[in-house]
Task: structure prediction
Amino acid sequence: MTIRFLDATLINQIAAGEVIERPASAVKELVENAIDAGGTKIDVVVREGGRTLISVSDNGSGIPQRDLSLAVERHATSKIPDSDLFNIQTLGFRGEALPSIGAVSRLCITSRTAEDETAWQLHVEGGKKGEPTPTSRGFGTRVEVRDLFYATPARLKFLKAPATELSHIVDILNRLALSHPDIHFSLMDGDRCVLSYESHKDRITSILGKDFLENASLVLLEREGLKVKGHISIPTFNRSNASLQYLFVNGRPVKDKILSAAVRIAYQDFLASNRHPVLALFLEVDPVSVDINVHPAKAEVRFRDSGLVRGVLISALKNALQEAAYRSSTTIAQDAIVAFQEPVAVSSWPQKTYSGSSSYKHASRFAFGDKHPTPGLSETLAAYQAPKYPESEESTIQTPSEDYPLGWARAQIHETYILAETADSLVIVDQHAAHERLVYEKLKQDHKNQTIQRQILLLPEIIDLPEETLKIILSRIEDFAQLGLIIEPFGLTALRVREVPAILMNADWRQLIQDLGSELQEMDATLSLTEQYNEILSTMACHNSIRAGHALSIEEMNALLRQMENTPHSGQCNHGRPTSVKLDRRDIEKLFGRR
Result:
């Protein structure tokens, strides 16, 4: 076959397929142009999800008459003045958007600069360019795109329903609005206002939720030429997917694997793998250290030193999470109030019983402190150097104090939940979730300091395992030894546990070893050795924590509360579930109609 050059229209149509995948892609390119032009007010109007109309208006610098025709030519741009492709400081730079859009639609550009006495208008229809004509308009630019993809009907078949296409446009504008808080953005779907963002708080509450800021930690870190800022949710404020994670590099919305992996690693101590934090993070780097020219739609980036970026981001997030301390999401208390207010059918109430063992059993579910501490628990809490309370104090009602944010224990419900009172609230603590976090943090600290105490088992535990599980466990014998767990082969199909961490003496080692084997098989290969150790320690902590159904004395309850107040990240267990719920006095009064 004969080799020939493609004509300009076909080239632009091919480019449109790469750059303009759907109406949202066109909106993104046009709004980015408006931002680069210095617009402080950007208004977007669409119809039928952008299929029949996309209009983007701004009050920016405008396009001079002499450049209007050149603006719709391929690879013509004003955004790389020094021709340095690795020093890009604008959102747009390829010079493909306008000609690509014009090749597959009916495009009209109207613009006026401060120097021009009048506005000028240019039409491009299916790649055919007209001549600029004078018209009336204020300063700035308006770009109208009608009948997108009319010149390439095959692409119309790939468009989704108008509501779906509109949702993609909203997502694009949300990301750009978050990264440019000083710009007023609006979106109209026909005559309906979809969004209008004036203040920074408007867009934060609308995009990330009205409860986000109240349940977020500030991120701010500058190191080795990198700056990370923004807000991240505390672990108990999470979602089932990552759709509310907004990441930006030099003001550019990106979806980057390195950044997403850093977020996942930073939260791995606090969230189950199927839960995701909510966040808006802004990374500022030297433009020459990041390549934004790796994707036609500029949605991906490549860092010169990806390891440095990953490390700095993880450090920034962990520092912010450290500040969260024992906080739990405020939405948990709100959900609790709703649950309390739901009517309970009379038939479901427990029947009154005045004598007999059933009455005693029912009453025991609400205990005011056992006189005899749970076997083994006192030793565990002592390892944390938690304060002890003399026997005489147990019978004394302690006055709530601001010195103890989680208050004083008053009772235990269902041998599972601790009720505590503060000066102005009621606190409900899940004893298993709380103790799991305490054990985990203690194990991590001891491992870091190489001070894990081991206990020799009088009768070594012999555990049979499937061949693959046994193989992977035995391959990590030295790693387990560093964690205080001494194991060795026992025959061809089993292993023997000889020594265990003293703090985990009460663990079910047979089940724990099986779970560790399964976890090692599924562990993310990208995790560092320290991160792998932490995942193993988390599993170990979960197996040794106070279970539901353990009666605790008042002394033990208070010791647990005090240790929570002095332990980082005690507001959630290792899986992201809250360890406590706080109901303010005002919330309680609402339940009884006092407010």
Notes: Residues 306-324 form the longest helix (19 residues). The radius of gyration is 31 Å.
